[in-house]
UniProtKB/TrEMBL annotation:
Residues that span the membrane, as ranges: 33-60, 72-97, 103-125
Any GO BP: cellular detoxification of fluoride
Protein name (Swiss-Prot/TrEMBL): Fluoride-specific ion channel FluC
Organism encoding this protein: Teichococcus wenyumeiae
Gene field: fluC
A single cellular component GO annotation: plasma membrane
Location within or outside the cell: Cell membrane
Binding site for Na(+): G80, T83
Length: 129
């Protein structure tokens, strides 16, 4: 099936919308319950999303037959909207099974690249503003 078929894109969009709303709600709830001294909402969605994708990934590797549609709705859509850290966790975990060295490289490149891009663009944004 065409990966850009309208029905597949709709599954990703619906799941993503639901995940994004839950991410927002989690942030609001965490700020109310725990305050804003730390980004508790971000921490919560990253930990919960990583746990959820770990469970689904483990079930699928263990033989759970999850259709392409279910994966697009739940993993790409919902968890992708809830937190992209969950996708990173799944990619890193499955890569570590195949090649620990490549997993280490991916981890280092992701952290250094992401933080480096943030620092550079943050400085650029401040300079422009």
């Amino acid at each position: 099936m065409n990966p850009f078929a309208p029905q597949l894109l709709a599954l990703v969009a619906v799941g993503g919308a639901a995940g994004s709303v839950l991410r927002y709600a989690t942030g609001v709830w965490c700020a109310r319950w725990f305050g804003i001294a730390l980004p508790w909402g971000t921490l919560a969605v990253n930990v919960l999303g990583s746990g959820a994708i770990g469970l689904l990934g483990g079930l699928m590797l263990g033989g759970l037959p999850l259709s392409q549609e279910a994966r697009l709705l739940a993993i790409t859509g919902f968890l992708g909207g809830f937190t992209t850290f969950s996708a990173f966790s799944l990619d890193l975990g499955t890569l570590a099974l195949r090649s620990p060295m490549q997993a280490g490289l991916y981890l280092a490149l992701t952290l250094l690249g992401g933080l480096g891009a943030f620092a550079l663009c943050f400085a650029l944004g401040r300079a422009v503003a």
